[in-house]
Specification:
The relative contact order is 0.16. α5 runs antiparallel to α11. By secondary structure, the chain is an alpha/beta fold. It has 12 helices and 15 strands. The strands form 2 sheets. The protein has a 9-stranded mixed sheet with strand order 14-13-12-11-7-10-9-8-15. A 6-stranded parallel sheet has the order 3-2-1-4-5-6, sandwiched between helices.
């Protein structure tokens, strides 16, 4: 069987995890690695195989790629996705997809028209425990959702700059926002409060280190997410409540509590391995439905987090539709 030839744009950070899994996948091979830092590209190519590049266009010109992982900072996407889509290269794009809704929506339309398979990196959807939670909630009416993403400061320089990361909610806590959508339904309105409280001495920082977001679903259910990087450890989770039931995902493990019963499930999967495996399998089988988070899904989650940022700026509730229905003046060619 011909292996899926996989390229990478971005060789640091989360790309390391994807490189490990793709290099061990019997259906795929690492063909090319592009990073603006030549030393990183060379080191990763030496470790995982493939040719090292520092220029994306050169890589596209010289390599015959079947798939591409895009693992670059939110501000650095440029036209990577559009160029890959026009060459028929399938995509796995790390979250968040960008920082401007109209720009990402344009990419989404180009990707759709190209016919390629394209996933977004919301890996928590691939947890076995999340699958159990999703199944349990099928016939349940959700009344309230509570989520949290509580972590420590990320020293990467671009992370602390609003214009480059979009803040923690857009860049990190977006995973919990996505789970809130995946398990609870589409979010209609958000109201956010954010503040910089304990990291004033960090050079060039202009993002909040504490965030509180209230939201309302299309169904009328209500929700809340807390986010901070003012902690020394890492905790994340989500709680879904309805009449006489409570579903709790703590980290990667699941507990379902009913009036007379309590069931607990421990996750048994490597979530990144599962996501990457399903991406390659989707390409081999030509079945985009194997992906649990499409590019379009990632765009919807981005809209919620951008609406929260807008709410902080205006001190008013913001309807997500005001982000998604904003006038788009571009034309797909």
């Amino acid at each position: 069987m011909k292996k899926v030839r996989v390229g990478f744009v971005g060789g640091g950070g989360i790309a390391n995890v994807h490189l490990q899994h793709i290099s061990k996948n019997e259906m795929a091979e690492v063909t090319a690695i592009c990073d603006i830092h030549e030393e990183t590209a060379l080191q990763k190519a030496k470790e995982y195989g493939g040719t090292a590049y520092t220029n994306v266009d050169e890589m596209f010109e010289k390599e015959q790629l079947d798939a591409l992982f895009v693992s670059v900072p939110p501000f650095a996407h440029g036209e990577i996705e559009e160029k890959a889509a026009r060459k028929g290269i399938h995509l796995m794009v790390e979250k968040p997809l960008g920082l401007d809704y109209q720009t990402v929506a344009k990419k989404a339309e180009i990707i759709k028209q190209s016919g390629i398979i394209c996933g977004s990196g919301y890996c928590l959807r691939y947890l076995d425990t999340v699958a159990k939670a999703k199944e349990y909630l099928q016939d349940k009416k959700t009344a309230m959702v509570r989520g949290h993403y509580l972590s420590s400061f990320v020293p990467t320089p671009w992370y602390r700059e609003w214009e480059k990361s979009g803040g923690q909610l857009v860049e990190q806590s977006t995973h919990i926002v996505d789970l809130a959508r995946y398990l609870g339904g589409e979010i209609n309105q958000v109201y956010a409060n954010m503040s910089l409280q304990v990291h004033h001495n960090v050079p060039n920082i202009n993002i909040p280190d504490v965030t509180s977001v209230n939201f309302v679903y299309d169904s009328g259910a209500v929700g809340h997410i807390d986010s901070t990087f003012a902690q020394f450890d890492h905790r994340m989770g989500i709680e879904v409540m309805g009449e006489e039931f409570r579903l709790v995902i703590d980290g990667v493990n699941l507990t379902i509590i009913e009036k007379d019963s309590n069931q607990s499930f421990k996750s048994e999967v490597d979530v990144y391995q599962e996501q990457d495996r399903m991406f390659i399998e989707a390409i081999v089988k030509g079945d985009r439905n194997l992906l649990l988070s499409s590019y379009e899904d990632g765009l919807k989650t981005l809209a919620v987090t951008l609406a929260a940022n807008q709410s902080q700026e205006t001190a008013l509730p913001v309807r997500v539709s005001s982000i998604t229905n904003s006038e788009i003046t571009w034309e797909v060619k």
